[in-house]
Amino acid sequence: MSKKIEVLSREVRLTGVEGHDYVCLTDIARYRNPEASDDLIRNWLRNRNTIEFLGIWEQINNPGFNPVEFDGIKKVAGLNSFTLTPKQWIERTGAIGIQSKAGRYGGTYAHLDIALEFASWISVEFKLYLIKEFQRLKEQERQTLGWDIRRNLARINYRIHTDAIQTHLIPPELSKAQTNLVYANEADVLNMALFGQTAAQWRAAHPKDKGNIRDQATGAQLVCLSNLENLNAVFIGEGLSQPQRLARLNKIAIEQMKLLTAEDYAPRLRGGGKPK
To answer: Are 62 and 148 members of one domain?
Structure first.
């Protein structure tokens, strides 16, 4: 999957290769010379130190690397007559650390280890900012992954919640529209307990936002929501009225959010009544 980061006002593309991040060398080279990025990459590959670095990297990470071809290339690297393109390096040695992609949106990509080495050759400043932006992207991905896991957990637990509603709160004679209204009303019990507002109230206050109130929840809120779904299912099975359940769930939400976050979090019921 392709991604992009911005480094010193330059767009740098990234792609995933078997679970590893590969950075576009073509984009890095454009920082120095937008019109001759391919020439810069070839010049870098002509350097003997570059060939030695690439060879060691491949020997460490690539069981299929061809050491015989590598030795032949290394012997002539650095000579005035020596030339080497990324495609030739890949085809002759079976290298995996560099990839060459054709097409309008193609370019030369390299494993992060190699890309940082190339960035040092282009500009030490650019390399440092590349590292900074890459780390920022990884932190963002880590947080997003954690959010996705919690969101999916909340969705799984919601099945327990809806089963309890279907078993105890929905008579068989209700129409589909009436049944959906019961589900929505019970969902708003959780929304009121945790967020202090119904889904409709949130939508009215955020007309330009995509998704729903739960899509905007923090990781801590999603953990708490999962717990509330299970508890509300238990309370429904025990025959507690909706106002009783709402009051208890709100109290639990306040207590759990204080534990889950460093900041005080106290969602309060608006009017203390039944969600509408």
So the answer is: no
